[in-house]
Amino acid sequence: MHQLSHRQVIVGGCALAFAASFLNTGFLIYNGTSVSHLTGDISRIASGIFILQQDTMNDLWMVLIATLGFILGAMSSGYLIHHPTLEIHMPYGRILTSLGVLLFVAHILYAKHAIVAIALGSFACGTQNALASRYRGVVLRTTHLTGLFTDLGIHLGMKLRGHDIENWKIAIPLVLSISFFLGATTSSALIVYTQADWILYAAVGYFVGGLGWSIYKRYSRSLNDISQDS
């Protein structure tokens, strides 16, 4: 099996981290619910579960829907990809394009059925996060920062200790974390200053990104076939 190069992983991972953070920030601003990571929301709900009020029940319902959507999304990746490492032949492009279509549906439904949009948004993030969980020993996560910060800290600490840690193992979690931050700030700025429809922007981004990857993969495969024949 042919694994992706460091450069391909960095570029693709940065795009995915940016997109997930962009999508998640909009839901946080408008609904107070995360669709890309659930630890904080679940802890917040659990801390107030014994003082049940209407607001708490609404939050609990949204977090439950987001959790189920995320799990179902991860399950879909497990079913479609069924491989924990990044391989260039996997249908990542088609999956991302499909997520773009799914987010376009969320955009249409959001005004009257926000809870359905939350479910679809979390499904998209769960699917994305589970596309690949490992790359040459490095745990890959593109929808939240906890794992990225953990890997970054571990590898920096080992390097300071004198271990031979390859630079790309530090670069990948670092640039993915920066991309996640940039996605959040971009989404916030667009919403605050232009009231942009962030779900529609995210839908277009996923669709175009998936289509672009599919075209790139076919082009790379053609070049590889030509080089082998020559």
Please give a structural write-up.
- It contains eight helices and two strands.
- Helix 6 runs antiparallel to helix 7.
- A two-stranded antiparallel sheet has the order 1-2.
- The chain is mostly helical.
- The longest helix is centred in the last third of the chain and has 32 residues.
- Strand 1 and strand 2 form a beta hairpin.
- The model has no long low-confidence stretch (mean pLDDT 85).
- The two termini are 22 Å apart.
Mean pLDDT across all residues, rounded? 85
Oligomer: single chain
Q: Count the helices. How many?
A: 8
Question: What structural class is derived from the secondary structure elements?
Answer: mainly alpha
Helix proportion of residues, in percent?
over 70%
Radius of gyration: 19 Å
Describe the main β-sheet briefly: 2 strands, antiparallel
Distance between the termini: 22 Å
Q: Shape, please?
A: globular
Order of the strands making up the biggest sheet:
1-2
Extended strand count: 2
**Uncertain residue ranges:** none
* Succession of helices and strands: HHHHHEEHHH
**Residues in β-strands, percent:** under 5%
Comma- or semicolon-separated keywords:
230 residues, mainly alpha, two-stranded antiparallel sheet, 8 helices, globular
Itemize the secondary structure elements and their pairings.
Blueprint lengths: L5 H26 L7 H9 L6 H27 L11 H18 L4 H16 L4 E2 L2 E2 L6 H16 L5 H28 L3 H32 L1
Antiparallel strand pairs: 1-2
Helix pairs in contact: 1-5, 1-7, 1-8, 3-5, 4-5, 4-8, 6-7
